[in-house]
Write a structure and sequence with these properties.
The structure holds two protein chains of two kinds. Chain A is built from five helices and five strands, in the order βαβαβαβαβα. Chain A is α/β, with parallel strands linked by helices. Chain B is α/β, with parallel strands linked by helices. A five-stranded mixed sheet of chain B has the order 2-4-5-7-6, covered by helices on one side. A five-stranded parallel sheet of chain B has the order 10-9-11-12-13, sandwiched between helices. Chain B is elongated and about 95 Å long. Chain B starts with a helix and ends with a helix. The chains are: A alpha/beta, B alpha/beta. Chains A and B meet through helix 1 and helix 4 of A and helix 1 and helix 10 of B.
Chain lengths: ~130, ~500
């Protein structure tokens, strides 16, 4: 069962997305701010990270930068989630080291496609 | 505003989707179909809110254009794949009529996509078991090319009276229309505004019972009146720090805008530099590796490989990471640029005096006895600069740890004045690297910071630094007394 770490500060978004992903066979770990996201990524080593960008404590860009700078977590694919579909937001996320980008509100089918594609590119280790 | 309106609606849509998925799994078709009605209504409301927000933004003059160069064919195929389910709902066929050599255009791609989707959605509402064609033509005219994008349907059409009210906000052709056909009546008004913002327009011809044709006409190369690239083009230019040298310092300028390359290129030639131009990120990287310029001026918003990616790739290459990069962009993300390793950041339009001063500063040969000052706050740099000038000591500023390391490699400073909290590489990370290099570990460091120093930080800093000064709470003399012995020793050795 692939492990996904969801970093999201909004309770309802967290609840909705985690329930829908669990139903589709993913094991979810939840972090509610960027600092916790980085800590949990290091301790649980998930197969993929869904990272909201506007987060308290440490924002998603900074959290991603830290994850990508650490050899232990650099190989974990990160999908950035932002409320804006602007090209500059996408560029900012990719610049921080995110592997893909999606906009909120989440369109589940599209997000699942991106998750599957990245898990194919970075296969979970056994 | 938009966030407050969308958040509760997103919860309604999201939880309805979850409930519907459960109902479908349980075989409860009645509940599933009720939830479908809630979902449709909520999505309609979300569309309406988005449209109203767009309209109010346009009316307030706050809607901005983001111009980029893109393949027209790709936008069309994107739009077609998004719109196909919608169009086929009423048994319509969607046809594409686009020459394979239609090529690129320069415009706001997101808004063009939205316009095409609005028109397609409009046509598919009023057409049943018919054909909707999306047609693209490049019309050459004397100066610039024109792109025409038409949405042609075989639907119910409109009479002249209906046509006249078509593009007004909140006004569908008939008041009963919206109950029968849905839609907000805002899509067409928004699309027309978008077209006009890009110096184009949307026109429509229609025959009742035969069909309608909506035509978007846009310049192939949309230009918006921009503030000038450079202020005071020839006043107060700082000349190259190597005026007599046979080989001028070489500057690579990476910018997709040919006008900017021209203006800045001339300015820098006048100031005594050798200019190489790159029109794209990829070309810039190639030239940087081949020609090893002394400095790089980098734009951020470029089609294809953007400036962030170029910066990242430069920093990842040990040989190229040494070259100072001055980011010159209309995007004002100074923190991001510095944290990615830029030596400094200037905003467009740039003042010619500032640009040439910055370049000369980056290229200046280091004096033998100098103080390196590392701080990301320009005001703080100014204060220390004045203090050191009073003592007649040479100094060199750096905006963060990365920039400081680049300068260290060029010449060892007599002492370092260091801030702790900085974007990019902070003071602690910098000290860590300093300590690992035997040639640098002995350089005296004075910390000047506004940070509250905890016991733990103090224990870390004590063996690595000479003193810790609190920003704003020390006199010039305090700093000068700390630095004076080392500066005097250096000055004596030089004589």
């Amino acid at each position: 069962m692939p492990k996904i770490l969801l970093v999201e500060d909004n309770e309802m978004n967290r609840d909705m997305l985690s329930r829908r992903l669990e139903k589709r066979g993913y094991a979810l770990t939840i972090a509610i701010d960027g600092g916790q996201g980085v800590a949990l990524a290091q301790s649980t080593l998930p197969d993929l990270i869904l990272m909201d960008m506007s987060l308290p404590v440490l924002d998603g860009w900074e959290a991603t930068k830290q994850l990508k700078a650490n050899p232990a977590t650099a190989g974990i694919p990160v999908i950035a989630l932002t409320a804006h579909a602007m090209d500059s937001d996408r560029q900012k996320a990719i610049g921080a080291g995110c592997d893909d980008f999606d906009t909120k509100p989440v369109e589940l089918a599209r997000l699942l496609g991106k998750i599957e594609e990245l898990l194919k590119k970075f296969p979970p280790k056994a | 505003m938009s966030h407050e309106l969308r958040t509760p609606l997103n919860a309604i849509i999201g939880y309805s989707e979850i409930l519907k998925e459960d109902a479908v799994d349980d075989g409860d078709t009645r509940t599933a179909s009720d939830l479908d009605k809630i979902l449709n209504a909520a999505r309609h409301l979300l569309g309406l809110i988005n449209d109203v927000l767009d309209i109010s933004k346009i009316e307030a003059g706050k809607m901005e254009l983001f111009l980029e160069t893109f393949e027209l064919e790709k936008i069309i195929s994107d739009v077609v794949s998004t719109a196909t389910p919608l169009v086929s709902k009423k048994g319509n066929t969607l046809k594409i009529d686009c020459p394979p050599d239609i090529g690129t255009m320069h415009a706001d791609a997101t808004k063009l996509r939205q316009m095409l989707l609005n028109l397609l959605s409009n046509s598919s509402k009023f057409t049943e078991a018919g054909t909707i064609t999306i047609k693209a033509v490049r019309v050459p005219n004397e100066a610039e090319g024109i792109i025409e994008l038409s949405i042609i349907d075989t639907g119910i059409g409109m009479n002249p009276e209906q046509l006249s009210r078509l593009f007004q906000a909140f006004s569908q052709a008939d008041s009963s229309t919206s109950s029968k056909y849905g839609g907000t009546g805002l899509g067409l008004a928004i699309s027309k505004q978008f077209a006009q913002m890009m110096k184009g327009d949307i026109s429509v011809t229609s025959t009742p019972g035969v069909g309608s044709t909506f035509k978007i006409r846009l310049p192939a190369n949309v230009q918006i009146k921009q503030a000038p690239v450079v202020h005071n083009t020839t006043h107060k230019l700082t000349k190259s720090p190597f005026p007599t040298s046979a080989s001028k310092p070489r500057i690579l300028m990476i910018d997709d805008d040919s006008e900017i390359r021209l203006v800045i290129g001339e300015l820098l030639s006048l100031s005594g530099y050798d200019i190489i131009e790159a029109a794209s990120g990829a070309q810039g990287l190639e030239l940087a590796a081949k020609l090893k310029p002394d400095l790089i001026i980098l734009d951020i918003m470029m089609p294809g490989m953007d400036g962030w990616t170029v910066l990242k790739k430069l920093q990842a290459n040990a040989k190229l990471a040494e070259i100072p990069v001055v980011v010159l962009s209309a995007v004002s993300d100074t923190e991001m640029a510095l944290s990615q390793g830029a030596a400094s950041v200037l905003l467009k339009p740039v003042d010619s005096a500032r640009l040439t001063a910055e370049i000369a500063m980056q290229l200046n040969p280091l004096p033998r006895c100098y103080v390196l000052h590392v701080d990301d706050d320009p005001d703080a740099r100014e204060i220390i600069a004045r203090m050191l000038e009073r003592e007649d000591w040479a100094y060199h500023p750096a905006a963060n740890g990365n920039a400081a390391l680049r300068i260290l490699k060029k010449g060892r400073p007599v002492a370092i004045v260091l801030d702790l909290k900085m974007v990019g590489m902070n003071g602690f990370e910098f000290l860590e690297i300093l300590g690992k290099n035997p040639a640098w570990a002995t350089i005296p460091v004075v910390v000047v910071s506004s940070m509250d120093i905890t016991q733990e930080m103090g224990d870390y800093l004590a063996p690595r630094t000479m003193a810790i000064l609190q920003k704003g709470r020390f006199a010039r003399e305090d700093l000068a007394n700390l630095l004076r012995p080392a500066m005097q020793t250096c000055a004596l050795a030089e004589k």
